[in-house]
Amino acid sequence: MDDAVNETDVEKRVRTLEERLNRMEAVPAKETVSLHPAWAFILTAVSVALGYLALGHPEHYYHFLFSGLLLVLLYHRGFLRMERGRWRWPQAALNFLLLCLLFKLLIGGGIGHPFDWLKVPVLTKTAPPAGPSWYSLLVPDYTVQWQGIPKISEWSIDVTKIQAYLLLATFAGALFRFEPFTSIAASALLIISLPVYLQYNWDLVVLFLIFGGVSLYIQSRAYALAGDRQRDPLRSLS
User: Which of 58, 138, 152, 189 lies 20 to 30 A from 125 at CA?
Assistant: First the structure.
């Protein structure tokens, strides 16, 4: 008798669960804002324009190399979705330019002359003017000029390469979760890049980062998954 009652109770629970699932499937999907690819294209174009005004154009080949490798990785791993139709390659080209400007911000030191300020006074003789007087012929005119020290003031260093090494070291330390090394490499990168950062227009840089971040997010897999969860209520339970 007890077994029959338990079986009936189980059947009722199963029937109730099936009814609830049927009701959930019958619920109309929530309307989501399916953004047109033009929105990502426009946001990326605005971000590229702001980045060019704030940072200038990329100069070192590291900017193009690293941005190309990162873009291929993002598309290959599925972090960025390839747009369909005619928007695919124009959007990919703008994403490449966006990443170039991002690396311009991170490793855009260029060629630096750390001792160009080191100069010494030099006494030079000024040539007499045309039709000189007897005084200018007898008494030469001398002026004091500041000139750089050869091979010292002209010494240059590729700051971009040093920034690239420190950036790679920071990524390697973060990948292997070696926090002390990561902190030291990131601090050294910040110290070396600080004189370069002070030359940028940070009002435009902030807008460049905002528009660029939004454009990359709406192209990302996370945005697509969020839209799928809103369209399918059952997937939100998993």
Answer: 152
Q: Which residues does 60 contact at the CB level (< 8 Å), separation at least 6?
A: 107, 108, 110, 160
Which single residue is written with the structure tokens 């690293």? Answer: 66
pTM for the whole thing?
Answer: 0.68
Task: Give the pair of three-digit tokens for residue 216.
Answer: 């990359």
Residues paired with residue 158 on neighbouring β-strands, in sequence order: 111
What digits encode the pLDDT tens for the residues 156-171?
788 888 889 999 999 8
Beta-ladder partners of 126: 141
Question: Closest Cα partner for 26 from 191, 186, 233, 218?
Answer: 233
Q: Is the pLDDT of residue 98 over 90?
A: yes
Distance, CA of 78 to CA of 237 (rounded, Å): 23
Token pair in block for residue 133: 């007087």
**Residue that is written with structure tokens 């420190």 in the block:** 166
Burial of 154 by CB count in 10 Å (0-12 exposed, 13-18 middle, 19+ buried)? exposed
